[in-house]
């Protein structure tokens, strides 16, 4: 069983399980999902990340103690991933490092879109010379802004701008972009470069390291 | 359709398609495999790698021209991968970079076994601080040596030695180790750390980037 940590607080069971269900449906894995508490807007800046880290460590340790054989931290900033790796023996997979490593496997110059003011450090560091540029789409301040039609149109514009600037593929530096299925939205807008969805990427590596594999 | 390049010369169709069939069976992808010419012992040192590079470039370009939408260079040294990426637009996946990037997704210290005197450069560079050490099992000089019982026992011993030295997972730096299903051999010998098979790793990324995805 895989433990998937949501870094945003939901009470709706369907929302809690949304990333887990995307991964389960694509990779045929057994997943239990849990949210950290009291973060209704998730992680979208340094303050909200610092607030989340101890909660993620506690939840990850509890999931490992309860028998999970792999932990996914489903957030593009990889919050608490390093700390968890030093505390538990099972594989710990982060959305941001996963998306960046998938991008490197293709070797193309990678444009990044996200919801934070700056590109998440784990993504910029991992991409290295393959990092092309970063944009936060207009009007997007947190993951909930992605749900509006105007937010989604701003994502399409940002991606077009990155490609004009030389990006050969696009990485989604917010797992909320998986929630809205931004890949399909971009395809419908004739974006044809490879698209790296961080939820898909974390699922890919979880499928490789899961004991079921 | 994915084009898979074997860097060893076979005439037996079953051997030519062996890696492609492993990937097809696990990831449900359509794959056509071809060998480079006149390298009966494959790539196992600098001389054989230099000899292979122009042949791989020619074959990869021909496969792209004939309609393949992704190329796999099925060799742990990633020969000609960078050159091919600069010459064709479709994704080019290398076995060595794939295995190393999969290892980084788990973040554990990685011991490497292979058939060359030194660890392939692409693997050591990509693993960075996560590289734990490298061993060539006793009596193994080229991929054909892996087929013998004594060669396989030497692989088990080398893996045990790397784990004693602090490796938390093991990466196979020769695709011939996928051919002999070294993962099953190690599991049967009670090796329980994560095992990263380079053929499996290249298939993983091909499944992500394939147009079918």
TrEMBL record, chains A, B:
Coiled coil: none annotated. It comes from the Bacteria. This is Hydantoin racemase. Transmembrane segments: none annotated. InterPro entries: Asp/Glu/hydantoin_racemase, Asp/Glu_race, Pyrv_kinase-like_dom_sf. It comes from Oenococcus oeni (Leuconostoc oenos). GO terms for molecular function: amino-acid racemase activity.
């Amino acid at each position: 069983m895989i433990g998937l940590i949501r870094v945003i607080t939901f009470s709706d069971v369907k929302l809690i399980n949304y990333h887990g269900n995307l991964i389960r449906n694509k990779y045929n894995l057994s997943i239990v999902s849990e949210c950290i508490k009291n973060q209704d807007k998730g992680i979208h800046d340094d303050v909200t990340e610092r607030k989340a880290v101890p909660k993620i460590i506690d939840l990850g340790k509890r999931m490992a103690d309860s028998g999970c054989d792999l932990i996914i931290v489903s957030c593009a900033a990889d919050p608490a991933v390093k700390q968890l790796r030093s505390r538990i023996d099972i594989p710990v997979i982060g959305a941001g490092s996963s998306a960046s490593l998938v991008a490197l496997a293709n070797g193309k110059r990678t444009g990044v879109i996200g919801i934070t003011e700056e590109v998440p450090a784990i993504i910029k560091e991992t991409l290295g010379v393959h990092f092309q540029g970063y944009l936060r789409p207009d009007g997007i301040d947190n993951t909930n802004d992605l749900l509006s039609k105007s937010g989604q149109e701003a994502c399409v514009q940002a991606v077009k701008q990155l490609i004009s600037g030389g990006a050969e593929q696009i990485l989604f530096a917010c797992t909320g972009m998986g929630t809205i299925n931004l890949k399909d939205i971009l395809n419908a807008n004739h974006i044809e470069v490879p698209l790296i969805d961080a939820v898909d990427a974390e699922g890919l590596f979880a499928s490789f390291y899961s004991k079921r594999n």
